[in-house]
Amino acid sequence: MTSDIGHSSHPRSAVVAAVPGEQRARTVRVWFGSRLIACAVVTAEQAAGCEAGMRRRFAGCRVTNEAAR
Q: Is the confidence at residue 41, as pLDDT, over 80?
């Protein structure tokens, strides 16, 4: 069995929550160097909790929390 981790331009994580309707969306991402390794699009109310969870899960990696486009 082989692994293609690090050989794809797409992260292996899925969107954690869909953002319904007109709510303000945030994108929380985890970076290993310049490589995106996780991404979640959540509501503004969920973003801080999601960011905190990703910081615990991916300790040592850079986590960003930005307005979704």
A: yes
